[in-house]
Amino acid sequence: MLTKEIYERCRKRALKFLKKAKIVITEKEKEEMEVAEYGLGMVDKIGLELIVYVNTDRCCAKELILFPYQTCPEHRHPPVEGEEGKEETFRCRWGKVYLYVPGEKTKNPKAKLPEGKEKYFTVWHEIELNPGDQYTLKPNTLHWFQAGPKGAIVSEFSTKSRDEYDIYTDPAIKADLERKV
Ligand code: ZN
């Protein structure tokens, strides 16, 4: 559960990463940062901090802040109401992130998963993103990502974001995520 204490701790820690990366955000954005805890009670391992810059009917832009080895769990964005699912582009701004997509399994992948959760990560084609690198995912493609040892800041550009429809591989993750307290 995302308690006020966990939310504040993650928010403050994420602000330090943004400062290190010299990414300027407004006071309002600092206050409105979201923390995705996924209901798993292991936010430092499976979790994500995010700032939504824009989310209209046509486009969405977010800053994702990941602590060292913090993981966004495997999911996909299915078609909704006759529209294709969300298309996403991830661009690494700071640190390093390992993105996993369908395809040939990478030998000796760099990501380390929390014990007991390995089975909910099924795609293992690794794409390493360093600052300035980006990758575009087609709608409805399974994906997950984990920050490297320093953490990471990733800009996400996408079509409309409707988090409540996202499908997670781990059945313990509720679709309608609680992100803010
Ligand atoms: Zn996604």
Can you identify the CATH superfamily? Jelly Rolls
Q: How far is the N terminus from the C terminus? A: 10 Å
**Secondary-structure element pattern, one letter each:** HHEEEEEEEEE
Q: Provide a count of the helices.
A: 2
Unreliable spans are: none
Provide the CATH topology: Jelly Rolls
Q: Give the helix level as a range of percent.
A: 10-25%
Q: Strand share of the residues?
A: 35-45%
The biggest sheet, with number of strands, parallel, antiparallel or mixed sense and barrel status, is: 9 strands, antiparallel
Integer count of domains: 1
Radius of gyration: 15 Å
The helix-and-strand class reads mainly beta
Q: Could you say which small molecules are bound to this protein? A: zinc ion
Would you identify the CATH architecture?
Answer: Sandwich
Assembly type: single chain
Name of the CATH first level: Mainly Beta
What is the 3D form?
A: globular
Number of strands: 9
Task: Please provide a written account of the structure.
The chain has one domain (4-168): Jelly Rolls (Sandwich). It is built from two helices and nine strands; from the N terminus they run ααβββββββββ. The model has no long low-confidence stretch (mean pLDDT 95). It has helices spanning 4-20, 27-31; strands spanning 34-36, 48-55, 60-66, 71-76, 88-101, 125-129, 134-137, 143-158, 167-168. The structure holds zinc ion. Zinc ion binds next to loops.
